[in-house]
């Protein structure tokens, strides 16, 4: 499998009719706004781009997420929010009939989604649940994880809303749902199924709901947001305001690579020049250049700052890796947009 950057001569917001926007690390960080996010999304809507906010967080109701976004000057309705809880409930219904019992280990959003899918929520493994639906909630404790382990060990199908090991907050990275799911898996030896990113389930649900023809995935994590875009066949924009860095993008394996790169959501309003191969192995993009020589990444004399040198570095490193000569990670510096 190979994958490289794409180009766009005009603004992405004009070229795509729907943006599937991740939340943590893209629209906000914890409870704090990310600079330029609100203004950029408002401008994208003015270009005719519709928005659906797609989050691996299963703890909250869509109405609560929409209210938070609106409070950050990003007006949103509940039907413009797609949560991992909704995707988890949809996955459960692929094997469970209406009325099946599900032990929900998670927040109110997951309980609501499971109930809305026609399933019966139970609170203990003693109720012989057919499945365990596990999602993140800051209130989860040892007792909740123990009930999940008892049920899974007893034969219940274990479905996780997502497997994110970390969760970005205003204070830094905290344990995510994947870390909590790992505790149950360690106790039972059973690997769960997952509905959240990098599975493309949420993207497909959101695209179908909107009836979109030219969707664009926007995320900050290569291993979830952009991997889900690749696996679902959707173009993806990686913004450098969250978990995965520009250096991570340069070193990304094919299944995690974005189609577009931007420092922040202002990238929706800008053209995206396509890097091209030149002489002596140099890849150029809008006047910036990078190459891989003898396994090491080399940048032009302007150094490691600027989105176009990041694009050139990605093109050079990915081409080298796909040719069987991957770049030495030690030669890749921290890059800044």
Automatic annotation (TrEMBL):
It comes from the Bacteria. One of its GO terms (molecular function) is hydrolase activity. Coiled coil: none annotated. InterPro entries: GNAT-like (IPR041065), HAD-like_sf (IPR036412), HAD-SF_hydro_IA (IPR006439), HAD-SF_hydro_IIA (IPR006357), HAD_sf (IPR023214). Residues 285-330 form the GCN5-related N-acetyltransferase-like domain. Keywords: Hydrolase. NCBIfam families: HAD-SF-IA-v1. PANTHER family: 4-NITROPHENYLPHOSPHATASE-RELATED, D-GLYCEROL 3-PHOSPHATE PHOSPHATASE. This is HAD-IA family hydrolase. It comes from Isoptericola peretonis.
